[in-house]
Amino acid sequence: MRKYDKSVKLNNVCYDIRGPVMDEANRMIRNGENVLKLNIGNPAPFGFRAPDEIVNVMMENLTETEGYSDSKGLFSAREAIRKYDEKKGIKGVAVDDIYTGNGVSELITLSMQGLLDYGDEILVPAPDYPLWTASVTLAGGTAVHYICDEESEWYPDINDIRSKITPRTKGIVIINPNNPTGALYPKELLMEIVDIAEKNDLIIFSDEIYDRLVMDGLKHTSIASLTDNLCITFNGLSKSHLIAGYRVGWMSISGNKKNAKGYIEGINLLSSMRLCSNVPAQSLIAKALDYAVETDELISPGGRIYTQREFICKAINDIPGLSVVRPKAAFYIFPRIDTKKFNITNDEKFALDILRDKKILFTHGGGFHWEVPDHFRIVFLPELKVLQEATEKMKEFLADYRQVDY
Fold this sequence. Notes:
By secondary structure, the protein is of the alpha/beta class. The protein is built from 15 helices and 15 strands. Strands 2-9-8-7-6-3-4-5 form an eight-stranded mixed β-sheet.
């Protein structure tokens, strides 16, 4: 009988945010065990609710959005995005340079498939949001990881970026604000990346889904506002408007498109092949981008996300053997664990050990293409009492933990 294996294109693809550790957690949950989930940035399960004003817009438009839209999206949605880009200082974006998507994830994959031939390279940060590496790989390219430096607030290492450019390098990905570290890149750093991209004719792919979740009175700068180089900016409403399940994302193409006609033709073809993104969800974009988002209160001093960030950073830093750089945006922290103290050589095993013993679920650093087994990601969206319980259990677990090899 014929055997059916997975495609060889998946051989070097991983997505450990929903990988073996989560599989084990799901098995435990099915068996009736209570697992404290600190693993996925999905606001809804933690009591966050989308503003009624936003939900009502989609409800009111349901009968008007039963058919397909233009493959790029509703004109009203794309015009609102164009105006938003303009407010961010991004120049030269026309309505036809904007593509709506079923979340940013779909558009990341589309943008890589339209560009890459076998052997082409894309610079991707380490740690990364793993979909970027997976999408580059699935498109036939090679993800070359440049280091983000924990000692410098997790900013990209400019010298490491320069050292990894080859004649096959077509673009560079930045994730700003960053997932998994919560870093926010200053304008001066972005200008250095722009300089590298311009000197090496690289496309800039900028993932900015958390640009409205910035704390401490800081401001987000879109890298596309600093360059005339070809830049593709990704954004959406999943996090800022608490509607991850609605799958509302977009990408905007800015800068010099003269030498990218073929690439844009490819994007247009791929966009047409999927017909269009979710039309009812598109219908709320214009209202949402003109709305005073409730997350503004959540990230202000005294707000829930702000308060939980303050707690989790102090709690982690107070546990012997753990430390963390305080994030400035989003709702993630990426703690360091003293591998010598705990004899850790396998970070996935560490995540499984604490899951099985203390029922705490987080994602190990290797899931974000961090090669040394000394980090893990915590999502601090759960309520404060859950974070308090989780960190107490973490402290108990690490008090006498020493990893034993498989």
